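Q: what sequence does this backbone want?
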């Protein structure tokens, strides 16, 4: 789903973004509710930032990447965290692109997300290359999502990747406590832009395996969001670079 955000584009930068787990739903400009297998997922556009809320039989997760005054950790290279019944993996990088390449990449990504039933993208009025986009998939109890935050004035594209997998104890019917053994690596590296879209999209996205239900909403949050989760770090391994 592609939407034009009803707000002006502010002069934010990739370095202004922070990462947090366990935040309550923040005011959003657009949201997409999805039912994927046995999970309820909400993708939320906060402007030049995002929030993902998930709840299933293994637990709950709230991820926020946004400008967070007075809170949140600087956007880390990677996070590995045990929380609720999940193993949580997060990775982020910043790509620097020349103006011509940036515009092409922006339109390519927007077309991909706009046509996908599990995608949500928002474009700022008057700035077609300034956007935030999100894409999610779920298979066999594991949920993955990717996000893209575009900053055309700096030629920077922030790319994040998250994988949420049920822990063995949760699969056996035991839900563990939240947020432990976490570490965080500070600082997101600049990375050369990879070629093609394959490196930007989770494996399997583009060919959903079942007719999941999607419903667009405006600014509505999930009824249950975890509180008090803290974050940690380690780069996440994935077949998608």
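A:
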């Amino acid at each position: 789903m592609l939407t034009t955000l009803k707000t002006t584009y502010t002069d934010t930068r990739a370095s202004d973004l922070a990462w947090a787990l366990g935040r309550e739903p923040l005011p959003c400009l657009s949201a997409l509710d999805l039912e994927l297998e046995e999970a309820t997922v909400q993708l939320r556009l906060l402007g030049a930032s995002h929030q993902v809320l998930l709840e299933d039989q293994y637990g709950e997760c709230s991820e926020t990447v946004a400008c967070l005054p007075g809170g949140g950790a600087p956007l880390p290279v990677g996070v590995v965290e045990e929380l609720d019944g999940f193993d949580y993996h997060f990775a982020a990088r910043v790509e620097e692109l020349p103006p011509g390449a940036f515009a092409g990449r922006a339109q390519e990504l927007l077309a991909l997300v706009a046509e996908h039933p599990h995608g949500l993208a928002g474009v700022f009025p008057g700035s077609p290359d300034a956007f935030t986009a999100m894409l999610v998939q779920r298979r066999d109890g594991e949920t993955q999502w990717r996000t893209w935050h575009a900053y055309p004035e700096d030629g920077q594209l922030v790319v994040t990747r998250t994988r949420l997998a049920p822990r063995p104890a949760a699969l056996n019917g035991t839900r563990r406590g939240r947020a432990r053994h976490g570490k965080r690596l500070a600082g997101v590296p600049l990375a050369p832009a990879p070629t093609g879209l394959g490196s930007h999209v989770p494996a399997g996205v583009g060919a959903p395996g079942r007719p999941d239900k999607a419903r667009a909403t405006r600014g509505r949050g999930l009824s249950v969001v975890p509180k008090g989760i803290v974050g940690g770090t380690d780069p996440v391994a994935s077949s998608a670079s």
